[in-house]
Amino acid sequence: MDDQLITPVSVTRHHDHVNVDVDADAEAGKQATQLVAELEAEQPLPANNFAFTPSQLHKLLKQRSLAALDVFGGLRGLVLGLRTDVTTGLSADEASLDGTIKFDEAVAAAREDRVPVLSAVEEPLAAPSLTFPRAESHQQFIDRRRIFGANRLPRRRQKSFLKLMWIAFNDKLIILLTISACISLAIGLYQSLTADEDTSNIEWVDGVTVVAAIVVIVLASAATDWQKNHRFEKLNERQQQREVTVLRSGRIQQISIYDVMVGDVLHLEAGEVVPADGVLIQGSSLYIDESSITGETQLVRKTAPADRSRSRAFQPDPFIFSGTTVCRGVGRFLVLSVGEYSAHGMTLMSLREDVEETPLQAKLGKLGKQLILFGAVAGSIYFCILFIRFLVRLPQHKHARPTQKAEAFLHIVMLAVTIVVITVPEGLALNVTIALAFATTRMLKDHNLVRLIRSCEIMGNATSICSDKTGTLTQNKMAVVAGRVGLESGFEELEVPVTGASSSGSSSVTKLPSARQFMSTVSPQVERLIRESIALNSTAFERDDSAGAEFVGSSTETALLKFGRDHLGMGRLGEERANTPVVTMLPFDSARKWMAVLLKLPNGRYRLLVKGAAEIVFEYCAFIVSDPTYQVTIDRLTEPDRASFRKTINDYAVNMLRPVAISFRDFDEDEVFLHPDDDPASINLEWLASGMVFIGFFGIRDPLRPEVVDSVRKCQDAGVFVRMVTGDNFLTAKAVAAECGIYTAGGVAMDGPTFRKLTPSQRDAIIPRLQVLARSSPEDKLLLVTRLREMRETVAVTGDGTNDALALKAADVGFAMGLQGTEVAKEAASIILLDDNFASIVRALSWGRTVNDAVKKFIQFQFTINITAGITTIISELVGDSIFTVVQLLWINLIMDIFASLAFATDHPSPDFLMRKPEPRNTPIINITMWKMIVGQSIYQLLVVFLVHYVGWDLFNPGTEHEIEKLQTLVFNIYVWMQFFNQHNCRRVDNKLDIWYQGILKNPWFIGVQLLTILGQFLIIFKGGEAFDTKPLTGAQWGWSILFGSLTIPLGALIRQVPDCLVLELFRGVKKLFLFVTTPIRNVWALIFARAKERSGDASQGELGPVGTSGISSNNALVHQTELSAANPPPREPNHIMSDTESQPTLNDNNSSSLAENSTIASISEKREIDLQALIDAAKLGRLADKEMLEIHPRTLKNDPILTPRSDLNLPPSQDPYILRYFIRTRRNDARGSISRSARRPTVPARATWVEPSRPTPARTREQPRRDWISWEGLLRSKRR
Q1: Is residue 468 annotated as a catalytic residue, yes or no?
Q2: Which of the residues 206, 225, 259, 468 is marked catalytic?
Q3: What are the tens digits of pLDDT across the range 846-884?
Q4: Which of 32, 201, 400, 484 could bond to 490 as cystine, CB 3.0-4.6 Å?
Q5: The model's pTM
Q6: 479-506+513-701 to CATH, choices 3.10.450.50, 1.10.150.130, 3.40.50.920, 3.40.1110.10
């Protein structure tokens, strides 16, 4: 029966196991026969040095069955046919290969277990066309790269410059203006050609000038779009770049993902995204999420083909596909397909799409559509007025030629269209696009790799940051500096002793020996036990074969390995691991907090080595190595011993050391395996981890980054609430947070198990004060992020593990670690921190605010031109004396759209950006401060233009046509210079006076735009002539122009001194007046719409029939649904947490029963509701509960209620002044803020006393704050603030 079960004829894959039956055997036989026929019919590739072609390997992976694998000779046949080796990988010196291997020869050699015979390569008829270019970067694997390709997709074809020009031209207004200009040009040419000799023959100039202006606008728009696409393409290439681990020439090394070749042996670990397709060679508890290609959320267990002889129930599934995610375990696989031939590559080739629109772009697009509608209506009304006037005056021009009448009509059309063009801000979307393109490129230099463009602008208004500890706040340069081995032995490398007393419990402080001194006294047996626990129970590896090679892996493991090399006589990792066979491994998991490995000893027994968080591993132990200086003596742990070790672990944590423990236990074979032929990979090591022997633990120090304290302070100055969310020890996390400035007076520290036991209302009450969440699981982080977003916070979160992917996705902006982060975390993140530094998050915050400010600057500048140019043109034309011509308006439009977009979108961040609070969600783009400046500057510019144009007739008294044109040129020149200086004035959108605070000389684009504007204006005035209807001005007139223009800067300073509240009251008064005047009209419209709605309602009721029946049926359905809910009540809160993550891949294997038992026990224990108020009262007295960990900062005010109600539920808690008043302590040690905040401190005790809760039960604790802020007293207090 067993032989029938392991017959490798057919497989039917069902999640992570294979069910073999007769029907499946028949189907697999048909597929294998069909595969053989397809392989025989396929034409061989010319000059192929390998037994297989990319097409043949793709067909193998497509069938993903063992029967198809047997057709290729199994794993051995693939290895021989691809001319590689499973133990050493590809040769690093391979370039060109001699000879070839036939398909049949590779299969026969594999089945006969011999070396294949090489054949001569068939030279193609056109050999020169098949030669591979011998570039310097491709000296390796020339033939392999030529046949199977490189592991990169063909570059996406970008839009050509002509295509971008067509897109820029394909605008309704531009097209309409072009048609009008072409007709005007045709009529002008006709007039010029038919004109008399003594008359002017330059009527065609206007049409040519308008066409030329349109061409310039289209070229400028296309150029900026091309530059933007080029920058985004380079950014996308940088996103896909990463390092993978391969085996070449017998050495493990890291190479670029683009250098992976077919035939490579790749190393897989939990958290990685598979870079290529292949077949598994060996694996340990390897589970892969294949939902990206199958849609199934259950994890698939992968086993090598060689494991099927040992399996009793399951057929192996060895096929690995690119784009899938390794969720558990480790393994190695043989690469069969890369690049566009792989499964993920084919999917990406068919799903290439454009950059997603950002929220700011969408908001500006909506604003632009509204302005277009307004401009179209205004332009239509304007055209109708001019057209009526044209018809009225038509009898007065009886003697005019038809061409002159047509030209006058076209002038009206072009003027109306130009009004729409000048009043519609086409550059809004262009501005934000350019700003994002420049910001993302420059952020890359600041170690921020932006994956989602939208995250750049969202980060500017982040209100809360949930940061990890290791590597983000610390340097990630871990080193073992202390340790305790056995009952009373240990070492320290610190100047100040870590523990307050010796391990034996005496009150005197004893200086422990150094690590070198202590390890010299340890017996060889214990030393070997520690060395094996460090070297074998690890997934790290050495970068090369040198004596002092750098270790590659997690920072904790590399610190222990360095300790083993320096003090335990540990040799090369490869030699250490080759000497002791590893049966199976349980990799580290962030929820479990430990890892294990099972070894087979020479005496036939098995040894389990466990390594992980000291406070967790220690509780699994019942025995201890009593005397490490004498062999391996074991004693039972007593309660005094446990108390002593727990105290030492706490001492380590308080001193910011990470305690990592090691333990072991030996087993007989029958205790490990139920049957002799059981698969070792199916052993549940979690079941074996109990009653273990404690060896000791090590204190690992990770120093803080020197810039992290200043970075945290900058975030707090910017109104961003910083929290530490870490899986580290509670005391360690609290100490590091206090050192960073995150954990301060008024704040609360809590551990993950306590946090997840809280009810939703209790979480909402404590989250505004929560600053440290230690010992947290990825689910805790996800729950915290979700609740913060529901509180209207804009959340940024950091993560590095596979399980952090859900929290990274749930956050508004997810930051993944570029150095220590897994590929799964990077795929889920919005931004990748290339240096894993918290300071880079602060720089991302600055860039986000820079983008938002760039858009506001542009809008403030553009709306001023929209208002002034539109009003000036409309009024002057209606009066009968046009101030600006069509060509002049198009030049103004070019300055407004293209030039201003480049000038404002390319600014650098300023430190001032981090000295203001973030803007809440759905805040309007244009605030009252901007409207104040827009209206003020518009009034000034309109007064200047109209006064100079109309009063100038009395001052200058132009008597000739030349003088009249010169006066019109003066008005045009003054208007352009006012826009020139207003660009400087609009560099600031708040009420501060320093408009050059960002450093004007640091932005060459702004300087270039200014110079180009000056140069263009000089050319237009002096050489514009008939094209622009200008005349050269005198020096005095240039002086008046620059004077009127420069006055916009002092005027802007005066406008900024006007209080915003007065302007707001003025606007409200205007609104009330408008509503009062239009009340009759609005009442009439409301009556009309109400009657129309009643008629439509009566008609719909007649069509749908009586309402009573449907109401009864819906009520019955509701009653039925209520009965079902009562019969099946919803789960309690702990189970509901899983609903947030139910879409994540689940595990379906032998371990599922243990996981179900653990979850059941956890849910039962979590059903007990925590008395949160009692916890807070105990924490105020300095008492910590045995199970629930909650601590209040010792400098917190004594009358601080902690559970502070929110004054406004529409306001994020981090921006609520009612809550922030208790965090005044954040500036206590800051000299800059102590003076400004000390004046507010006397008000705190009174308010704190007023809200002091005095309820003993948590239920009333949740109710009382709600009554407080709804009461009149609470409302008056909030108004007074």
Answers
A1: yes
A2: 468
A3: 999 998 888 888 889 988 988 888 888 888 877 777 788
A4: 484
A5: 0.69
A6: 3.40.1110.10
